Amino acid sequence: MPSPSLRHRFGHRIRELRLATGMTQEAFADHCGFARTYMSRIETGGANPSLDAIKVLADALGIELSELLKGI
């Protein structure tokens, strides 16, 4: 079975970190300034977020980019 794509692994990482904060997807999307549908697409690997969007996600999670990308 092929390994999940980078977008899917990244989305899973975002979801895992978001859940650890206790925020709903909608609350986290609002915190980032993103539409909930865009956040859903990021978490499911359907979106290919820009570098700027990835930085927004890391900042919203209160972590460095290197920590966000760790293990993916």
Q: Hey, roughly how much beta strand do the residues contain?
A: under 5%
On the 0 to 100 scale, the average pLDDT is 96
Termini Cα gap? 18 Å
Classification by helices and strands:
mainly alpha
Q: Total helix count?
A: 5
Largest sheet: none
Q: What's the gyration radius in Å?
A: 11 Å
Helix content: 55-70%
Characterization of the model:
The structure is a single chain. The chain has 72 residues and is mainly α. It is 68% helix and 0% strand. It has five helices and no strands. It has helices spanning 6-21, 25-32, 36-44, 51-61, 65-69. Helix 2 packs across helix 3. The longest helix has 16 residues, at 6-21.
Descriptive terms for the model:
mainly alpha; 0% strand; 72 residues; single chain
Please provide a brief summary of the model.
The chain is an all-alpha fold and 72 residues long. The protein contains 5 helices and no strands.
Ordered list of secondary-structure elements with their pairings:
Layout: H1 6-21, H2 25-32, H3 36-44, H4 51-61, H5 65-69
